[in-house]
Amino acid sequence: MAKSPALQSNVGVDYVVVYRYSTADKKAAENTFASLIARLSSVGLETEVRTGDNHSLLIFLRMASEEHMLGEVYRSRVRDWIHGVRTSQPASDTKASLEEDPLIEAERLRIIYQLITNPENEGGAGITPKKGEWENVESVFALHDHVYNKEWIKKWSTQWLLQPEDLDDIRNRMGSKVAIYFAFTQSYFMFLLFPAVIGLGAWALLGHFSPTYAVLASLWSVVFTEYWKHQEHDLAIRWGVRGVTNIDTSRREFRPVKEATDPVTGERQQIFPATTRLQRQILVVPFTIAAVVILGSMIASCFAIEIFISEVYTGPFKGYLVFLPTVLLTTGLPMLTGFLTTLATRLTDYENYETEAQHEQALTSKVFVLNFLTSYLAICLTAFVYVPFGSIVVPYLNVFSIIVRPFASKEEQLHASSKPSHFAINPDRLRKQFIYFTVTAQIVNFAMEVVVPYLKRQGFLKFKQIQSQRAKSGGGAGPFVGADDSPEEKEFLARVRNEAELTVYDVYDDLREMVVQFGYLTMFSVIWPLAPVSFLINNWIELRADAIKICVEMQRPTPWRADSIGPWLDALSFLTWFGSLTMSALVYMFSNDGLGPDGNPSEIKGWGLLLAVFFSEHIYLFARWGVSTAIAKIDSPGRQKVRRDRFLTRQRYFEESLAHTRQLPAVSEGMSTASVTREMLEEQARQGSLTTATSQDRFWSRQRGWKESVQVGRGLIERSLPDEKDVKAAKKEL
């Protein structure tokens, strides 16, 4: 089994375990460390220990023998075959089978990680970082292949589009869960070319709030969502992970109520009643209401304050006070979102799911509610409250005058008249707000995601260099970490210590960002048709920025497998449906003059708005059915591979069964067909299949071979059907 380039560049190290002993007393730390090493060695891992940062140890791991690795590979592939991920049973000679089905780096690292973390009853060491008896185990991570990372970044920065081979390479090194995110973003980027062209044409020729653009954009969102379902199915087959979600990873936090025996299989099962879980899941209703009230109140209050200061208040410091809502949002909203996210996590833990996939699905649905409110509520308030009802709502904003009263020298400067005639809505407010979310916010997010962490990281490294230089020169500091490293290991250990300080990569954070962006496009892009152009540019950069982020700012991801983007696929479908409602409403309200209502709700016909939304939703449902039906009929390499594998499997089993049949006695070996059949039936009769051998003899008494059967059959046909001459004579008599 050949060594991968990553292993060669990392001196053969598969994984690194960071053990921090500063949080326990000396004796307990030593005992836990000894137990950790013994547990790792018991599952076939070889260990080596070096000094880490901040009272920690670095435990380097690798497989002790190639034979043990081959055994784990065989066990993993058999498990895949049992659960239907593999179409054929793995060969018992794993070493020989690797020539046809080679062991990729991601599979090797995943198997070793599971060997470290799986429970002991599943053949693992049961090491759970930061949990239970292993709370001193800070992290378990694989080392980056820096040679590959440099080539990866260089290649992606010099090509316009990613090729299927590029995605295959990510899957081979980082697992299909990360690869399917890049495939989704690449597919989304390619699909954006159509709305970008249509949006550019609508902006130049059709004007604001074009019904034509709204229809095409909504249809595009349906096509993309349904096509992605088709494409991820194809990718799952291409990467050999179709149905991998059936191999659920059990949650250690699961707390069963009782144990029972399955009446069908006879195995012992841990039971948690579905009715009890349903009662706990109902708590998501008050959680959603609380999230809407808390986040909605925060966003609506800041929204109202911003309108009051920017469009009503005329006193001093107006240019500075207008930033007050932004300050409130940037400080208060993350705190509230963090609190609600923690509450969602605890609520999901309380629902007590058996597997990690179920837990992840439930948590993502709750987090999506929070993201929906924080991302889209402000635009909805502007479009559906401020514009149509401005003349009614704005006079009540007098309550916010208390905020700016200390800055006003005269009462008249507040200028908060209660008469609607003193207020005129800002027709550009909605467009400017949407441009902020689609352009400015994207730039800010890129800076916060890539640039700021990079600068912080460089500053931290610089600080460590200064500390080590002071320690070398005897500046009063203690001995710096790495002072006792051997010269040939010095550079390698310094790199490992740096990687140990990096954060863990979560691919769902990047998926959430793409789904939120998709929501802006499918729900509100009719406001500013150039939004798809902005997203097209952003996503080209985002693909490269995410690669840099993984290589530089994050620990190497654990190469988990996935055959879908998971619960975010449901989020895409929901946003597509909701977009059919918002797009039609915006077109109805704003398409007459491109500016929309003037703040007077009498200009809006309620029946007309409801009718537009009603027809738009039903057109969406019909279009979704038509598109999904049409796409389902499209053939693809993945589906061709499934048919080919099924055919080869059927053919192989047929040939095996035929070879087994040919081993039975034959006529050419001196026995007639009748005698062979008679012997078989007599054996069945002795087992109770037929009554007596005598009846069998009478039945087969005239049987001598297949030629005799033909003659008997022809005779029966001749006797049962009249001769042609007889038929003519009978007709003549009649």
- Class derived from helix and strand content: mainly alpha
What number of structural domains do the residues give?
Answer: 3
DSSP helix count? 27
Portion in strands: under 5%
Question: How far is the N terminus from the C terminus?
Answer: 89 Å
Rg over CA atoms, rounded to whole Å, is 35 Å
Largest sheet: 4 strands, antiparallel
Low-confidence blocks of residues: 415-421, 666-671
Shape, principal axes of CA atoms: globular
Helix content: 55-70%
Global mean pLDDT: 79
Count of extended strands: 6
Q: If strands are numbered along the chain, what order do they take across the biggest sheet? A: 2-3-1-4
Describe this structure in words.
One of its GO terms (molecular function) is chloride channel activity. Mean pLDDT is 79; it is low at 415-421 and 666-671. This protein has 27 helices and 6 strands. It has 3 domains: 5-143, no CATH class; 165-244 and 261-448 and 508-632, no CATH class; 705-734, no CATH class. Helix 8 (176-191) packs antiparallel against helix 10, helix 10 (211-238) runs antiparallel to helix 21 (568-590) and helix 15 crosses helix 17 (429-472). It has helices at 5-9, 26-42, 66-82, 94-97, 105-117, 146-157, 164-174, 176-191, 193-206, 211-238, 274-281, 284-311, 318-321, 324-351, 356-393, 401-404, 429-472, 487-500, 507-524, 531-553, 568-590, 606-632, 637-661, 673-686, 693-699, 706-720, 724-733; strands spanning 15-20, 45-51, 56-63, 137-141, 258-261, 268-271. The longest helix is centred in the middle third of the chain and has 44 residues, at 429-472. By secondary structure, the chain is mainly alpha-helical.
